[in-house]
Amino acid sequence: MDHDSDQHSLNRIWSRPFRKKSEWVEEATALCLAHCLFDGIAERSVQHIVSHMHPRNYHRNEVIFDMGHAGASAMLILSGEVVIMADTVELTRLHQGDIFGEVALATTLPRTAQAIAKADSRLVFFLRSDLDEWIERTPREASRFLINLSTMLAERLMQRNLEVMDAAIPDHS
Amino acid sequence: MNNLPGKLMQQPFIQASLIFMASATAVTMAAYLLYPLLFTLLLSGLLYAAMFPTARYLTRRGVSRTQAVVAVMAVIVTIVLVMSVLLYPLIAAQLDQLSARTGSIDARLTHLLQQINELTSNHLHISFDPAAMAAQLLDSVTLTLSSLQTTVSSYFNDVAFSLFLVPLITFFLLRDFRVLRNQTMQLLPNRYFELGWMIYNAASSQLQGYLRGISIQMASITLICTAGFWLAGIDFAPLLGILTGLLNLIPIFGIALAKIPPLLVVLLSDDPSLTSMILALAVVFAAQIVDTAYILPRVIAKSANLHPVTVMVSVSLAGYYFGFTGLIAAVPLLFSAKVFFLELLRGLSDFSPLHQQRIMARLKQSIPHTL
Asked: Does the keyword Cell membrane apply (chain B) (predicted)?
């Protein structure tokens, strides 16, 4: 049985040395479809985009990105846990299906927070260059994604403004 | 003081230099190992850069990747086949003819010098001994022609050998390069994954634009010169057109070098008249004006912004060590190295602790309540 399995693996390597491993694609597609960033985008397109993304594994306490560094991608959590920090302040904890670092898809500004894997994690990177290609290939669907991204960032800004107002005027709420 | 090497290693310039040297060593070793296929691979890379936008355009229009690549390759193979059937036998025959003519160079040279002597003594009252001068020039010209004929023959033999492999390699590059690239980038450690992609994207867009530009430039000059030489009644028009197109790719030297082959051909023709020499020069000159005025600003722009001394030294060394291929490939390779190093330096600077501290300070100043 083991011999057959090895033979099968060897044949796969021989026949297509650069074959894309697609086990994670189905899972990542399902998670993306459930996320607000991909609202209104056809499943087939999401699957196509996900198949161009890049899976990476992180160990516990490994830094994913640092505050102030240049950023080029958003990350989807396939498994594990990620904590977002600003200086020494923990801003939020993220889990399977969450997407973070999405600001880098909209701008070339440096990262505004630090991300650390709090458990062994598997992430999928969605690069800005992949988004650029998507915009060139199917502008209508990509613009739907960009509208969702703008909405998400605007909602976050609104939330932030409310927090500032609450802090400035304690009886505002 | 003890920590000085560690601090130096954190400097983006030192890091970029070390990575650049390691990459250059790896590329040189790969080039040494792949030397028999180097020309084929370079030509495939050039074709890939030139054809990739068309394949991408077709995939954007809803054509599947494989169908788009097959369509693009059908065009390339057709062009290659037409060139092989029509052009190669013609060029080979012309080279043999050119070689045979070198035997009677003394008589032709004397005849030409007599013409020049008549002209200068009538108008400028300066005269010389055409036969003596012909004898003096004969040795060096024969040597130059012999070496040029050998170099050009071996160059076109390389092209002929590559004609079979180039379409095949270009097909797989167009179809699988993306997957191969992604798998290679996956080898980067997590810490450098985003940085690696940033450097790659910035460098590749510049290099693809440059390679596409020089392909268009080469094809345009070749077509203009071939048509011009043919209209001017100069022999070996297609061969001279290709040679001028290739030589014109070399900045600074190219503008002078491109004029040598047509002049030599006129010198070796049955009627080496001054009019033919002026016409040959006029064709190259006209092509170079079109190149400078229309092609360079539109397709290459300021991309190959290299210092003239750097170009002169690299072209001379590459020509000395690698012959005609080195002469042509020197500037594109030098430009690629420059782009790679500068993007590496910029990327590493964006990821340096100093840059991070500067950004943090700016963030703290602009939104003090968040930190």
From this structure: yes
